[in-house]
Amino acid sequence: MKAGIVGANGYSGVELIRLLLNHPYIELEMLVSHSTNGQKIQDIYPHLTGVLNHELEPFDANELAKRVEVVFFATPAGVSKTLLPECLDKGLLCIDLSGDFRLKTPEEYEKWYHQAPAEAARLETAVYGLAEINHKQIEGAQFIANPGCYPTASLLGLAPAVKDGAIDLSTVIIDGKSGVTGSGRKASIGNLYAEVNDSVKAYKLGAHQHTPEIEQELAAMSGEKSAITFSTHLIPMSRGLMCTIYATITKGYSEREWLDLYQSFYEKSPFVRIRPQGNWPATKEVVGSNFCDIGLSVDGRTRRLTVVSVIDNVIKGAAGQAIQNLNIIKGWDEKAGLSLTPVYP
Ligand SMILES: NC(=O)C1=CN([C@@H]2O[C@H](COP(=O)(O)OP(=O)(O)OC[C@H]3O[C@@H](n4cnc5c(N)ncnc54)[C@H](OP(=O)(O)O)[C@@H]3O)[C@@H](O)[C@H]2O)C=CC1
Ligand SMILES: CC(=O)N[C@@H](CCC(=O)OP(=O)(O)O)C(=O)O
User: Active site: which residues (predicted)?
Assistant: First the structure.
């Protein structure tokens, strides 16, 4: 299958390139950029020297429809809502890595992304691509809204407990920490070395655009609407994301029973690894892979469950999950192109 990437010269785009070059059923055909048309991808990214010699081309839906079957949009919020519908209308399979089509309520997008939403009718047609939870809906889909990085780690960390009704949703607190690639390759003062190094910084408290996405999907799992507390922090590392999640327990399970609940929930999910008791995951143990590792702690004193969930933000949080979704859509091996061992140390 021939593939195109719009936003190929961003961090998620270039990770899609790396992963798709090793995918057994994909041939990379068209790389689209915004400001660097005509340049070769290896001129922008010297690590691709001798690996890929493609030119970056301007966006052209007709050209994409002529040359590829699947298009990945790795563009900032606000771009795919204008470019992607034309590709859908031409019959292309579209996987959007941005937040433009994740929220089903247009007003919520406007409120949290501070811009006009995509057309409501289009929002209806996008399948939320959290592969482990929405597997059935993803099979055969034409259009995927790939989840955000924090929602991926948070929802995978919460799903078994929420679907079992074992926690009180109104008590959920998510403490998120992300490496700097999470904010993309564009230049910004907040991402300068001297600003980020040797420091940990809280940002977008009470205002993070992933808040309504997590709430929407928790409501879909539980049938119950509730507001969460979600706080995000920037960590001086390139890749990796951790969500430490707290919630009050409503069922009297032992620590062993909690682990059994999580292990059996993810029995058929090749990318979720549940850690044994007392073994909490570190970002370093998943970076470079499509794994989401989850560790649990149960405190009988406070009746609180603590879940630690880690991913590589650019892989399981973006490019890897997008490819996992394509594999599911096509009925290929879910692990095709994604059998990656984490890079350690
Ligand atoms: N980085 C991460 O960990 C994650 C990112 N995402 C989401 O994935 C998307 C891409 O993120 P990321 O790779 O980090 O972003 P980057 O800023 O690194 O890259 C953005 C890409 O989009 C292109 N672009 C910008 N404006 C336009 C436009 N108007 N038309 C066409 N192309 C455009 C840029 O091209 P040019 O440089 O030529 O302007 C660049 O190739 C975002 O929506 C992000 O929120 C989701 C999960 C995790
Ligand atoms: C470290 C950092 O700044 N991360 C970004 C992640 C952005 C992102 O992935 O945005 P969408 O999923 O909404 O497209 C942030 O917290 O806003």
Answer: 149
Query: Which residue's CA is the closest to the ligand 2 atom numbered 12?
Result: 148
Give the position, in ligand 2's atom list, of the atom nearest the Cα of 151.
12
SS3 state at 306 = strand
CA distance 340 to 187: 30
pLDDT beyond 90 at 292: yes
Alpha-carbon 288 to chain mean position: 14
* DSSP string computed for 211-280: HHHHHHHHHHHHS-----EEEEEE-SSSS-EEEEEEEEE-S---HHHHHHHHHHHTTT-TTEEEPPTT--
Among 32, 56, 75, which is best to mutate for testing ligand 1, by the most ligand atoms less than 8 A from CB?
75
This complex has an ipTM of 0.97
Largest CA distance in the chain: 62
Domain 150-313 has CATH 3.30.360.10: yes
Average pLDDT over residues 44-69: 97
Where are the domain boundaries for CATH 3.40.50.720 in the chain? 2-125
The Cα 259–Cα 294 span in angstroms is 10
The CATH class, in words, for 2-125 is alpha beta
Q: From the candidates 87, 94, 149, 243, which is the catalytic residue? A: 149
Give the pLDDT score at 36: 85
Q: How many other CB atoms sit within 10 Å of the CB of residue 33?
A: 23
Alpha-carbon gap, residue 54 to 45, rounded angstroms: 12
Give all strands of the β-sheet with 201-203 in edge-to-edge order: 201-203, 229-234, 167-178, 241-249, 304-311, 292-299, 272-274
- Annotated active-site residue 149? The verdict is yes
Whether this prediction's pTM lies above 0.90 is answered by yes
* Residues whose CB falls within 8 Å of the CB of residue 265, separated by 6 or more in sequence, listed in order: 159, 160, 163
Which residue's CA is the nearest one to ligand 2's atom 15? 183
Count how many residues are written for the chain: 345
**Where are the CATH 3.30.360.10 domain residues in the chain?**
150-313
